[in-house]
């Protein structure tokens, strides 16, 4: 029973919150609102999935939100300047991926702790977004094909949700079913042991941080297409949300360990709570307080699991 | 029995500190060979050379009669030498089979995509453990939930997975209780029965006398002597190590 609660307790709590909002939050149960929650979850889940890869190798990435903002203004700026949208998308993805690669190089090559390295690249990315935009958002009547990336439907399902599902499923598959995922996990769990077993631990960390950047690029493109605008710091709020989703995810399914399924459910719970609080008429600042509580509580729970593991070895 | 591993006149210095001043080691195939000596005698340095962690300043290493250059632990593994360090090198929160196959996971193709072959790894892990007479049913149990002896068994299985013919065990019974120590002794005996050569580094003379066929004593970076453990008592061995007759 204790095992069951440790694995599924958070998800069950999320289910209870869902039922509570269904009953008490007016309009929460409407199909339009539920779809909206799913759409909001998409951006968060994609960003948090990337961060999960970094954390899986025991490295932090505090730059993914600002890298997403940078990728967004690069994409938006290029489209606004007349570049074919597909090229602009590739450029946006490349910029964010390059940012992740730089993080990886700083951590594995220059040996800068990831907390500091990614804080630095986050600041640089932030500066670059203002340099590119001059502080003014790119807006315009953009190619409907580009906008369809976020607003279109595929067999009646919003493209956003399809992309999120694809990202989450591929990430789950990689982490659970492939040698790469196992090597990343081993790197994060016991770096020295993994190294002695012949695993290229530095490469695993490089890949983890690069994937975090790549995921930020995907989320950025979708954000721009959804809003048909690109502004500095447009993804800034996703930093704490993304971290909260991953940490909340670490309290379920595989307690104490970053895991894709947990991250997805974590993102879903956070988006649902944010939506529910608005519908319940809660003051706007309550959302930040809620995120803070989630981050601290999640780490407390995960830390106790990790501590138990450490003591038993 | 012919020697499977020989080290001749190994010298190694760290700055002004001469850790090895011409150490020799001859290990026969299939034997349990203990390496003993007081702190600073050069045991760890000699093992680092054989396991590819360090390179000798002078001296040769031969495996199965052929001179080898062990530039790193992977070279040592390729030569059939695996080292189980005191910390065992396991990932405590990962499963038994994941630890045994860490770094050399089995894969199969599904629709052209390589995926982990979990079932095969579990079955092979079970086989490895059975070959050691070790009873562990659930290969998906986490290593953190195993006893000290069981963890040693998992670490040995990983070495066997690497097809090691020589397994170096560094202080395998340190920090273990009586029952767990006996478990490890059984594992070492079982390895010998299976034809695996074991080099045992231990401060515990009772363990050495109980399980080793021969013992090499190092002192001051040199090989003092190499002798059979037949009729040797732990008391007599301790005296030899400390410089007695």
UniProtKB/TrEMBL annotation, chain A:
InterPro entries: ABC_transp_permease (IPR001851). One of its GO terms (cellular component) is plasma membrane. This is Monosaccharide ABC transporter membrane protein, CUT2 family. The keyword Cell inner membrane applies. It is a multi-pass membrane protein. It is found in: Cell membrane. Pfam families: BPD_transp_2 (PF02653). The chain crosses the membrane at residues 41-57, 87-108, 115-142, 154-174, 206-229, 260-283, 289-306. Its main location: membrane. It comes from the Bacteria. GO terms for molecular function: transmembrane transporter activity. The keyword Cell membrane applies. Keywords: Cell inner membrane, Cell membrane, Membrane, Transmembrane, Transmembrane helix, Transport. CDD domains: TM_PBP1_transp_AraH_like. It comes from Afifella marina DSM 2698. PANTHER family: ABC TRANSPORTER PERMEASE PROTEIN YPHD-RELATED, ABC TRANSPORTER PERMEASE PROTEIN YPHD-RELATED-RELATED.
From TrEMBL, chain B:
One of its GO terms (molecular function) is ATP binding. It comes from the Bacteria. Belongs to the ABC transporter superfamily. The lineage of its organism: Bacteria, Pseudomonadati, Pseudomonadota, Alphaproteobacteria, Hyphomicrobiales. PANTHER family: CARBOHYDRATE TRANSPORT ATP-BINDING PROTEIN MG119-RELATED (PTHR43790), SUGAR ABC TRANSPORTER ATP-BINDING PROTEIN (PTHR43790:SF8). The keyword Disulfide bond does not apply. The keyword ATP-binding applies. InterPro entries: AAA+_ATPase, ABC_carbohydrate_import_ATPase, ABC_transporter-like_ATP-bd, ABC_transporter-like_CS, P-loop_NTPase. Keywords: ATP-binding, Nucleotide-binding. It comes from Afifella marina DSM 2698. This is Monosaccharide ABC transporter ATP-binding protein, CUT2 family. Residues 5-245 form the ABC transporter domain.
